[in-house]
Amino acid sequence: MTARFRPAADPAAAVQTARVRAHLEVVAEDVQRRAQLASPTGTSRTGYRGRFKRRVTATSAQVGNTDIAAHLIEYGSVNNPPYAPLRRAVKAAGLNLTDRHST
Amino acid sequence: MIPDIEAITGRWLRQHPSMLAVPDVRIVGQPPSSTTGPWVQIRQLDAQSPTSSRADHLIGYLIQLDCYASRDGGQAQATRLARAVRYALNELPGVRDDAVVCAARTVGMLRAPDTDLEPARERVVLTAEIHAHPQPA
User: Fold this and answer.
1) What global pTM score does this model have?
2) Are B62 and A71 an interchain contact pair (Cβ–Cβ within 8 Å)?
3) Which of A21, A27, A78, B82 is the most buried (most CB within 10 A)?
């Protein structure tokens, strides 16, 4: 039995399916959970650990943190170690890490 | 035992020509006692063993290299230092001390001034993935 590969007429539309979005949701949730586990412990449940945000579209997923000190927790400073929860979470989830930034 | 990637990277950078061309730079694992001159601080973020292997042999390291300008250096000095570090890292693969470095890849290069210093100090944060294992006996 043989099969022939036929490329989709509209590849962009072909990936914008409910299944793809559902998979992105699963991956984003996994990354967020791992990032929370890798976060420094604090006394407040509403601190850094409670400020993770996820955004999933038809073709992409984002995980971030809105804490005012998020950059310090991720990258550290001369006085603080870098906990790197987001970078470590991406690696732990088995994804390829590229550290780019957007606002 | 798995390689000490901070020590290996530090020794490599200290003797690499691209780093020797940068005056007065220090390669450190802790913040230097004097922050007047430029420095590169190496910090290991993670060291993962492949989930597909029971042997703790080939390790995927994630390290951060903070490239600080001197007090009077500014943005140009910090970025030049970071580019020199990145160039040296690219040549790290090979037999290094008692380890074999299989691959080294820069995955992030962020200009992030350190506001914990007064005045704020120009800094470029490099994130690198390094795969290494102990040298066979």
Assistant:
1) 0.88
2) no
3) B82
